[in-house]
Structure formats: structure tokens, C-alpha cells
Amino acid sequence: MNAKLDNLINWFNDKGRVFVALSGGVDSALVAYAAYKKLQDSAIAVTADYKTLSTEELESARQTCREIGINHLLLDYNELENVKFVNNDYNRCFHCRTELGSHLQNLAEKHNITTIVDGTNMDDLGDYRPGIDAMKKHGIKSPLVETGFTKNDVRASAKSIGLSIYDKPSNSCLASRIPWGQKITTEKLTRIEYAETIIKQVTGIRHVRVRDFNIYAKVEVDKQNIAKFNQEILDEISSKFHLIGYSRVEIDPDGYVPGKINVM
After folding, report:
1. pLDDT tens-digit profile of 167-187?
2. pLDDT above 80: residue 1
3. pLDDT score recorded for residue 136
4. Can you list the pairs that 58-67 forms with residues at least 24 positions away whose Cβ atoms lie under 8 Å?
5. Residue 138 — pLDDT band, cuts 50, 70, 90?
């Protein structure tokens, strides 16, 4: 086991009982592994099913917990009841994480939890991430940051310990596909999730974003995968997208860029 992973595991010394906010991605999965390695049943993974998390991410979180052996709780609430979140301004992620932090704190009190941690890594600090500030304000710690883990470090360590999601593409909540200023609705989230599933099934591409612009959809994939969208594939996707309410489909020629549509 490498020294960096040892440091992450040892970070949990004297932390008492711990909640790991587990999203379904590789970052929080590695944190959950380290917490369980050190604390055993005093570490508990918590996944928030707040109605903007895709079914795929929820199942990924469950699978990760089965692999690690860590106890897993679901935190069930409806983020769409939060007007500030639904209005979808540039502080959407702050409103989201503020609510999540409150729910985690309340649940922690019921379970006598002394420490709550998340999967924020060093690379995340370079992006516009108001949600990170919201979690900090609730006292939620980021052991990957404190032990100097980059995304590449996370993937390498996850692979070395046999986590099946070590190479899983990064994801974010479905609301991130809706441009700032456009209201978030259940209908939009449902069709975005379905649209991304269609792309994955038709093309085999794992890393997909379908940006929802009401009447049309813009598909972002990594640049090297754009060539897979030949005319036959485009026709099939367009036909299926029409059935769920999109009048047309565009493949973004610039490829996937995080947060590209988040401009006011």
C-alpha cells in the first residue's frame, strides 16, 4: 500500500464515529474505504437521495459500499422543495450543499457522529465550486485535500485496492445540465437522465452530458468520442430524443467542458 494512501487511512485516527458523504463517485469511495479501514463499524457511508441524483449514481454508491463492507445509510429528501435551488441562479450549488450539510448534521446528531467528511480533492479547489464553501461552513472536512490527493492520485489508489469504479468518469447532479436562470423541474431532470442513458446505450460512451435548453439538447462528450456520432447514430438518437420532448439535438464540437453553460 502506498504512503499517500496510508496517510489517508491514518487521517482517521482519533476521529471517533464518522459519516462519509458518499456521492457514487471514486473520490468519496476512496474516502469511505480509508475510513472503514481505520474505523470499521464506526465509519458509516451516507448517500443523499435528493431527487437530482441519477439512478446510476445511486446504484454506484450502493455497489461501492458492498465492495468495501461499510454500512450505508440513505438520506432521503426532495431538493426540489427548496425554492432557492429550483430558481437555479449562480449559487445553485451553494444552496444545494447548504441544505445537504444541514441534513447531514441533523442525522449525525441522531447517530452520535463526531466527524463528517466528503470527497473533495485538490483538483476541485481550482474550479468554481460554491458548494465546497457551503460544506465547510457546516464543519464538513475533506481528508483528500488535507492529505494532498489529486484526482489522478485518487484513481491510482482506488485501482490499487480493487475498487471497481476507479476509472468511472466524473459526474455531477442532473441539475448541472440546466443553464443558470432556467428553473429546475422534475420533468427536465427525468428527461435529461433518460437522454444520457440513450447516448450511453447507443454509442457505448461512458462520459456524457446532455445540456437541456428547453426545446433542444446539446450533447457533450470527450473530444475523441465525437467521431462516433455518424449520421446513422445521429438519426437514431434524434428519433429517440424527439419522443422525450427535444425538437433537435446538437453534438457540441468543442467536446465536454465542465460548467460550460453556467453563465448569466
Report:
1. 999 888 899 999 999 999 999
2. no
3. 86
4. 58/24, 59/24, 60/24, 60/25, 60/165, 60/168, 61/22, 61/23, 61/24, 63/164, 63/165, 64/22, 64/24, 64/29, 64/32, 64/163, 64/164, 64/165, 65/22, 65/32, 67/162, 67/163, 67/164
5. confident
User: What is the per-residue pLDDT across 113-126, written as a single tens digit (0 to 9) for each?
Assistant: 999 999 999 998 87
Distance, CA of 195 to CA of 123 (rounded, Å): 29
My answer on whether 85 and 132 are in the same domain is: yes
Structural domain range at position 104: 3-160
% the chain with pLDDT above 90? 84
* CATH code at position 235: 3.30.70
Mark which of 113, 130, 160 sits at the end of a domain. 160
Taking the CB of residue 82, how many other CB atoms lie within 10 A of it? Answer: 17
Judge whether 129 and 95 are in contact, CB under 8 Å.
no
Best CA proximity match to 28, nearest among 174, 105, 141? 141
What pTM, to 2 d.p., does this model score? 0.91
Residues 178, 229 share a domain: yes
- Partnered with residue 48 across adjacent β-strands are 75
> Is 166 part of any domain?
no
Does 64 share its domain with 111? yes
